[in-house]
Amino acid sequence: xxxxxxxxxxxxxxxxxxxxxxxxxxxxxxxxxxxxxxxxxxxxxxxxxxxxxxxxxxxxxxxxxxxxxxxxxxxxxxxxxxxxxxxxxxxxxxxxxxxxxxxxxxxxxxxxxxxxxxxxxxxxxxxxxxxxxxxxxxxxxxxxxxxxxxxxxxxxxxxxxxxxxxxxxxxxxxxxxxxxxxxxxxxxxxxxxxxxxxxxxxxxxxxxxxxxxxxxxxxxxxxxxxxxxxxxxxxxxxxxxxxxxxxxxxxxxxxxxxxxxxxxxxxxxxxxxxxxxxxxxxxxxxxxxxxxxxxxxxxxxxxxxxxxxxxxxxxxxxxxxxxxxxxxxxxxxxxxxxxxxxxxxxxxxxxxxxxxxxxxxxxxxxxxxxxxxxxxxxxxxxxxxxxxxxxxxxx
Length: 395
Ligand SMILES: N[C@@H](CCC[C@H](NC(=O)CCC(=O)O)C(=O)O)C(=O)O
Ligand SMILES: [Zn+2]
Ligand SMILES: [Zn+2]
Fold this sequence. Notes:
Zn(2+) 1 binds at residues 74, 107, 170. This protein is of the alpha+beta class. The protein folds into two domains: 7-185 and 313-394, 3-Layer(aba) Sandwich (Aminopeptidase), CATH 3.40.630.10; 187-306, Alpha-Beta Plaits (2-Layer Sandwich). Helices cover 28% and strands 25% of the residues. It contains nine helices and 20 strands. The strands form six sheets. Strands 1, 2, 3, 4, 7, 8 and 19 form a seven-stranded mixed β-sheet that branches. A four-stranded antiparallel β-sheet has the order 13-15-11-16, covered by helices on one side. Strands 5-6-20 form a three-stranded antiparallel β-sheet. α1 runs antiparallel to α2, α5 crosses α6 and α7 packs across α9 (376-393). The longest helix is centred in the C-terminal third of the chain and has 18 residues, at 376-393. The chain binds the ligand N[C@@H](CCC[C@H](NC(=O)CCC(=O)O)C(=O)O)C(=O)O and zinc ion (2 copies). One zinc ion (ZN) binds next to loops. One zinc ion is lined by residues 74, 107-108, 141, 170.
């Protein structure tokens, strides 16, 4: 039987499972082995959808009386990237100088490890209480997120489950534990622009049509002017160009086409639809008025494609939940957390339709990077915060 009181041991066991989306990698089995001895009943539904990988998920349920708290998160992790950049192998869970290294250490196997340790400690401290707790954990958050939390919530509700509150353990703190609670997230859309030109000799550009000249003006129009100045609850909308590709190894050939991808994180000035309309309009205007193209008699030939389903902007602010979480944070760290909607999106966007939800986890500085790591002290403190939160929730 696993001992689950130590968050660092829990995290090390989870990190040793190479669960890069969509692989389960043993992570859910390891979590199951931690939760079963605590009295949880475990189910492992697999969801499928054409065109996406099958995904394993886990729903663990401790039936009790009173309100029902859902701990939510994901065991899948992003790829390691270049292994030579890692000080320690990404799935070895090495501890050095009080820090535990490994892919998923903060995003977000660390949060799950602390959920488990806090629950184990709480149950030991109050053996006569019968709290109602569930773990809703997916293996598809970092990927398309189609066979994960969204379907798991629907599946559990269809079985008669309902929740009074949810705590998501994503790494919400930028620098220090206790700084930030997330109360919503920006939206996200991803697009690709392809400009078709005419390949030719670089010394005879009049016989060719250079698509790089075309795409420069299109991309410029996507960056300037700014989309907005930010709103009460959200940062300004931001577009990042993530790739520009012409597939051209030669220095004396004008390429036939240029392809660029971009991602926009947007605030509540926009919906995904209105933002996509704005992008379409900007591209159309820039295609007609392009200072870089020499022969403007031929219209610029380009196409725009949207990839993935958009993530919508949302707010989850629930003052009662925030106050009780802040009480726990203050008791452990002495800090009063500020409320934020910055950073990436999260599965709270699905949970908010079922119950009040709040997000709080480790320090996220190294998430998705080489040498992802967390301090052991933060793991202890986060466990203490979650335990205090449980005490308040079930008081
Ligand atoms: N591609 C997926 C969702 C991807 C979610 C991902 N979230 C994070 O990295 C969390 C970071 C944070 O907590 O700030 C993202 O924002 O890209 C989909 O579209 O469904
Ligand atoms: Zn995450
Ligand atoms: Zn992530």
